[in-house]
Write a structure and sequence with these properties.
Oligomer: single chain
Shape: elongated
Structural class: alpha+beta
CATH topology of the largest domain: Rossmann fold
Largest sheet: 6 strands, mixed
Number of helices: 15
CATH superfamily of the largest domain: HUPs
Radius of gyration: 30 Å
Number of strands: 20
CATH architecture of the largest domain: 3-Layer(aba) Sandwich
Strand order of the largest sheet: 3-2-1-4-6-5
Helix content: 40-55%
Mean pLDDT: 87
CATH class of the largest domain: Alpha Beta
Distance between the termini: 53 Å
Number of domains: 3
């Protein structure tokens, strides 16, 4: 109980009246977590509920775990949400622990979202923290992995964060609270069990305090990373030129003097902001450092994440967005208006226009008689060519954009207004000479294109 109180004193108490969902497997850690929360809830008016996932991996024993959790929650008058999910054959051949962990967190998040829980409590303790850091050491992983299990992540809290497994069992025995034992935790088939039963005991022969030392190392790195993450986010905000779902564009000049120690954290923030979840590899970090320093140009990819530099800018995006922009998208069929490519096009016929109204960044004026309906909006396509206003001949649109210092990734996103005879106006660039307004123009078509 005291360990949980110290944890909340260090990392913040949930507000009075908070709703907390506790993960409950039936094992000693989760049972102790649930019991501690229910005791503390009395004075703080917390509403406590539990959630259990039956993976069916141990047959009858898995069903007995679920029955135990149901009986326990009924006895303590706690609401319990259960889920049954067995792995397919492909999962049985892969990393079962990773599959079960991902499934468990997805279930907890879904229940919390659906029923409005403020916090999700899980039973990780000092031993789990040490084992996680030890696994990172054995795998020669980077500092992200070495920081181990964070005390708080989003709305996930860990009340037994500083408690040893021995203290947890002593608490349960003293309180005469039953719990289940998962016999699979004694097998040596998975790495975590080998670390628990072989590696850490061997290290303890040289350093009896190794468990607390590993846990302390992880927490120290977590605090340092938290500071670096905040600093990276602050620097990134100053560099943002444009941002939309799945895509963010940065001013490279704002990043050139960045200390390279922040690069992994800038990348993590970029990955998060384009909607992905992965840890950048050392190769990706090094390549990004070269890109933002202007030492190289081009693109770096890792999984679904892409970073590209061009013309003093850096773009980060998810692959689906990159591919959608690269191959273009079909224009909508509309004579006077189109809603496509996340842009909005509006047209109207006017009789006259003053010189002050001309602005080819967002609107243009065309000779209506020279516009061959329907008007469409599409992405730039390979081979696009037209005759810009004032130019004696035609020019490739890509070459025109390059001449105007438009970054590669922005060229692909350029909306292009067309009619039956071809390009009328690459948005932000000169209109087609054939559609210009002259003294002979009787009716003028005003076109406005804006992001949705």
């Amino acid at each position: 109980m005291s360990h949980a109180q110290e944890y909340f004193a260090r990392f913040g108490w949930p507000k009075n009246g908070s709703r907390i969902l506790a993960a409950l497997s039936g094992g000693p850690d989760s049972v102790a977590t649930l019991r501690v929360l229910t005791v503390l809830a009395t004075d703080r008016q917390w509403e406590i509920a539990a959630a259990h996932v039956n993976y069916g991996l141990r047959g009858e024993e898995s069903d007995q775990d679920e029955t135990f959790c149901r009986d326990l929650c009924r006895r303590w008058r706690i609401r319990l949400c259960c889920s049954r999910r067995k792995p397919g054959r492909d999962r049985l051949a892969g990393n079962l622990q990773a599959w079960a962990r991902e499934l468990r967190y997805r279930f907890l998040e879904r229940i919390a979202d659906r029923d409005g829980y403020d916090w999700i409590a899980v039973g990780h303790h000092l031993g789990d923290r040490a084992e996680t850091v030890a696994a990172a050491v054995l795998e020669a992983a980077g500092t992200f992995a070495l920081s181990g299990i964070p005390p708080v992540r989003g709305r996930i809290i860990r009340p037994l964060f500083d408690c040893t497994p021995e203290a947890i069992r002593e608490f349960l025995h003293a309180s005469k609270i039953p719990y289940r034992i998962d016999r699979s935790n004694a097998t040596m088939s998975c790495q975590r069990n080998r670390i628990r039963h072989q590696t850490i005991p061997a290290w303890m022969a040289d350093n009896p305090s190794i468990v607390r030392g590993l846990a302390r190392l992880g927490e120290q790195l977590w605090w340092q990373q938290s500071h670096l993450e905040r600093e990276a986010a602050r620097r990134l905000r100053k560099a943002v030129i444009a941002e939309k779902a799945g895509w963010i564009t940065l001013d490279i000049r704002r990043l050139t003097r960045l200390d390279r120690s922040l690069d992994p954290f800038v990348l993590r923030e970029l990955i998060r902001r384009v909607g992905l979840s992965l840890v950048p590899t050392a190769c990706t970090v090094e390549r990004f450092t070269q890109l933002r320093r202007g030492e190289v140009s081009g693109r770096v990819e890792q999984g679904e994440f892409i970073v590209e530099s061009s013309k003093g800018q850096i773009a980060a995006c998810c692959r689906s967005e990159y591919q959608a922009v690269s191959r273009g998208a079909p224009a909508s069929k509309s004579d006077c208006a189109a809603n496509t490519l996340k842009w909005q096009i509006k047209t109207e016929v006017v009789d006259e226009v003053s010189r002050e109204q001309f602005d080819d960044r967002c609107q243009v004026f065309l000779d209506l008689s020279k516009v061959h309906q329907p008007v469409k909006l599409r992405h730039l396509q390979a081979g696009d060519r037209y005759r810009p206003l004032g130019l004696g001949g035609t020019k490739k649109l890509l070459d025109l954009l390059a001449d105007h210092k438009i970054p590669v990734f922005q060229r692909r996103q350029t909306p292009v207004l067309t009619d039956q005879h071809g390009i009328l106006w690459p948005v932000g660039q000169p209109i087609a000479d054939r559609a210009k307004v002259t003294r002979m123009t009787r009716h003028i078509l005003r076109v406005v294109v804006q992001p949705l």
